[in-house]
Amino acid sequence: MTQTENVKRKRGRPPKTANNDFRDTRQELIKVGLSVLTERGYSYTGIDEILRKAGVPKGSFYHYFDNKESFGRILIEAYGRYFAGKLDRWFQDRTLTPLQRLDAFVEDAKAGMKRFEYRRGCLIGNLGQEMTALPEGFRALLQDVFRDWERRTEELLAEAQEAGEISPDVQCEQMSHFFWIGWEGAVLRAKLDQSPKPLDRFAEGFRSLLRGV
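Above: the chain sequence. Below: its structure as tokens.
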């Protein structure tokens, strides 16, 4: 290594030749952070726990993130993108009718919660419940994620309306907002009851509203 290269390198950062390892380790920390925060929340999760689960040496966290708050912001954005992809996978499946796509999303969510023994719910919903103890800057990020999910749901409901599956009187924007308010409550209750029944009951009630029953 030349003296010039040594001067240019930021203190505490991995060398440029280790960029791939840097990205891999950073991504692993994000992956572990998502799983831990989804179960335990932001306030009750320590950085040391995430480092231990990720197999990253203690004290290395600040090589990859500025602080816990910046890490939290990145996790919110990462989860928002991940879940938007999940919604697209179901909501854009043209082999199903629009309401069948909504049903498929519900079934997928039920299977996911069961797979993790109802320990995990929705990271965005969980953080929303912690908002009074979180950095204020998280509020806008969480709201943006919900708006994105609501927009995708509104588009699905508009398709269902065009297909004649739901009442023409349904206000799709309003109902998409209602869906996510109710869905997050159903997820919380499913975790509490360790049962898919709250998800089923909410989904059934929502379908009835859409059909004007």
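The chain is about 70% helix and 0% strand.
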